[in-house]
Amino acid sequence: MPTSAPAKVPAQDQPGTPSPSGAFDRFFKISERGSTLSREIRGGFATFFAMAYIIVLNPIILGSAKDMYGHQLDHGQLVTATVVTAAFTTLLMGVIGNVPIALAAGLGVNTVVALQLAPRMSWPDAMGMVVLAGFVVMLLVATGLRERVMNAVPLGLRKGISIGIGLFIMLIGLVDSGFVSRIPDVAHTTVPLQLGGDGHLVGWPVLIFVLGVLLTFGLIVRKVPGAILISIVGMTVLALIINSVAKIPSWGLTVPKWPGNPVATPDFGLLGKVSLFGGFDKVGVLTGILFVFTVLLSCFFDAMGTIMGVSDEAKLTNAQGEMPGMNKVLFVDGVAVALGGASSSSATTCFVESTAGVGEGARTGFANIVTGALFTVALFLTPVATMVPSQAATPALVAVGFLILSNSIKEIDWADHTIAIPAFVTMLMMPFTYSITNGIGMGFITFVVLRLAAGRGREVPVAMYAVSAVFAFYYLMPALGLT
């Protein structure tokens, strides 16, 4: 099937594959969106494996920090909080939003909570700030402001956001697999990344990644249904075999080894440990508002970029680039932010790794039901769920990054520099700053400035002016002494 239509690569079933029928099919619109039950199931599995690392990583980030009283969050309780919140919010998005966008604790936001908020207050106070940010997001959705902002983004810039996400998740895959790594500051070099760990590709884990990428692309070229999931499973089995023989010490967060005790007992001790306004007593009203604003901005635009990118890749948007039912999706995302704070797992947001499921053919919320169910199982079988090494899962991100890029780049009007340059800035700043929010912010500001410079200021929607001003203020906050 042609690569120009991402909805038809690489995991489509062969023609004639039966779809579910009746009320179930109508509720999730499976046939209406050109999908099948098998694709949705495969997509749900692929998304789970691509983002399961958060079960390990989020507790490490939050658990390593101390609040102003020197208290640290319990690791076991953080695991439970992370998994419970991811499972519930992913299921909620599937049922209410009916889109294949899974949610979990947001990377970046959890670092802000751990390193900026917690040291200035108690953990319940810090998580209260996250809950308040979620309430603000829900308020913006209820008033229609959030959807208005998204609909104000020109189509060419939307494509730039999609491409930026594709490049970003490809870089995530390369870094998380160890194929490229950060050069330590002690090297005193202006080059930030290098091949492998020391300029060379060394070790079995990297080989697993390379073989996984080649296998995934090979299956895509052959138009094999389930290409991404086949690669993840196949490379996991190979990694298990290699690790059992060679005893590799450098897999990273997740070692491909069958756990001695596959059952984990959930500890729900952190759920509900929140103080909504206690943080304001510690840092003052102005600083407290700025803290909430920082969390809000990251959650708002990270999710916005992910929703745009995933919905566009899944062909859920209309000719104007808008997705029907967007308000439901945005509202669930706001609820997820608040629930993340209420569970002490930090703000929960839409995961860009959902593109792995879309690459498998997922088009509806039923894929989320599968992913959410797997997170629920992981609540009791965390050692098994985290057995898939990143080197086996990240080839999916590289492959999907290519698919997004190849299907969006031709839809930008490169002759109109007032849209082409902002799109260019957006797509490059996401991977180069390792942030979806930064890519969107810099792209928006560039778009407004160039349209004004071209004498086309009246063509810029009011919402774009407002959001660009917010981003400009955000970037100037350190210079103004507000951080």
Please provide a written account of the structure:
- The protein has 483 residues and is an all-alpha fold.
- It has one domain (22-476).
- It is built from 21 helices and 4 strands.
- The strands form 2 sheets. A two-stranded antiparallel sheet has the order 1-4. It has a two-stranded antiparallel sheet with strand order 2-3.
- Helix 5 packs antiparallel against helix 12 (285-313).
- It is a multi-pass membrane protein.
- Residues 1-22 are annotated as: Disordered.
- One of its GO terms (cellular component) is plasma membrane.
Q: Helical region count? A: 21
The run of helices and strands is: HHHHEHHHHEEHHHHHEHHHHHHHH
- Overall residue-averaged pLDDT value: 90
Query: Radius of gyration over alpha carbons?
Result: 22 Å
Largest sheet: 2 strands, antiparallel
Task: Count up the domains.
Answer: 1
Structure class: mainly alpha
Shape: globular
The percent range for helix content is 55-70%
Strand line-up of the largest beta sheet: 1-4
Distance between the termini: 51 Å
Low-pLDDT residue intervals, each spanning 5 or more residues: 1-19
Question: What are the key terms here?
Answer:
483 residues, mainly alpha, two-stranded antiparallel ribbon, NCS2, MFS transporter, Azg-like, transport
